[in-house]
Amino acid sequence: MSAITGGPGLPQQRRLVTDIPGPASAAALERKRTHVADGVGTVLPIFVTAAGGGVIIDADGNSLIDLGSGIAVTSVGNAAAAVTRRVHEQVDAFTHTCFMVTPYDGYVDVCAALAEVTPGDHAKKSALFNSGAEAVENAVKISRAATGRDAVGVFDHAYHGRTNLTMAMTAKNMPYKHGFGPFAGEVYRAPLSYPLRDGLSGEAAAARAIDVLDKQVGVDNLACVVIEPILGEGGFVVPAEGFLPALAEWCTANGIVYIADEIQSGFCRTGDWFACDHEGVVPDLVTTAKGMAGGLPLAAVTGRAELMDSVHVGGLGGTYGGNPVACAAALGALEEMRTHDLAGRARTIGERMSGHLDKLRAGHPVIADVRGRGAMMAIELCKPGTTEPDAARAAAVNAACHRAGVVTLTCGTWGNVFRFLPPLSIPDDLLDEAFGVVAEAFMATA
Ligand code: PLZ
Predict the structure, then answer these.
(1) Per-residue confidence (pLDDT) for residue 184, from 0 to 100
(2) Which of 15, 109, 145, 237 is the most buried (most CB within 10 A)?
(3) How confident is the model at residue 3 (pLDDT cuts 50, 70, 90)?
């Protein structure tokens, strides 16, 4: 069997040679139905054989344009050169020892890099994990150990994961929580700043959230407040300016650990290293995963050294956390981000996407909002002239994009938000072509 090569060398084109799905993907789907639990759904009915730059190749030889990056993961591109080089070197050396048993440099190198790139110039330390949800759980553990308090403040529309504690922290019932309770206790939800829906200034929205947390939970009970600086699954909501700084200030004044969940928004995605950077907010702890390691499973909690060190020795860990191959991938991804100024690239992609989306909005009153930052943009679909969500239209446009060979994703509490998360390695002409397809999908479903 010949080796299948993906990566940036793949022809950067949209090319459909069969219907979506073609016969090979359809057969693979049938096998999936037999062997994989139905609870594990898939957005597109194709099976992947290679990916790179801005394309995904399926089992039938179709080449699709990727506007999802595997949910904001392959920001540096699939099989990016520095990632594959370092991963190959690492797998040839050793694949696992368990950092808690016999440590290795790659783990420490990643923690040192995290101290450099995360917001703030104070002394920082990190601990590494396997998934975003695990990072969020550990950030809560650390803040409880540090404060001696129990309560966790979260927000409407939040998404923090699928484990028991993070399900409690996630807002949306279907599909994430339905039937899976009882959930972890001591999690309290406050209203978010959602400019399209509340019309509040950042300060006013922060005052409203703080009032809920203060009166319904009490500052002396709050260990931490956890917030996505730009929402991910919840709809790419960008809080009104001033909301995040006001919240952070209130936390600091009251000894509450301010945790930024940058799992979806981090690592150059928004046009800076982190979404917090846009308003100069310095969180006490930041959780990262996804874009950090070019597709390998790695997550982290990074924060003030004294907070991180408030946990007893042995209190943090896990068999695979900071696996050497995943660490090598992260070092490769960071090399790609630095060498190719991917934060700058995200800003350029953002300008290009805004241009396309503003034009689209002018012709389609169903688009109630265009929002986001850098290469993390979305449109929210509502019945024209209202804020009543139009999830059916979002689903129809999404399906039309998929049939035409563009990988798009929806999100939002009502499923009516279309989000765009291209790999930062996507060429401009391919990005433009993808938005041409999105425009056609809007016309075809009008
Ligand atoms: N925090 C902000 O975006 C993961 C989940 C997709 P894990 N988002 C994609 C799905 O349907 O499961 C996410 C996130 C934010 C935490 C997480 C959780 O990260 O690596 O999926 O555990």
Answers:
(1) 98
(2) 237
(3) low
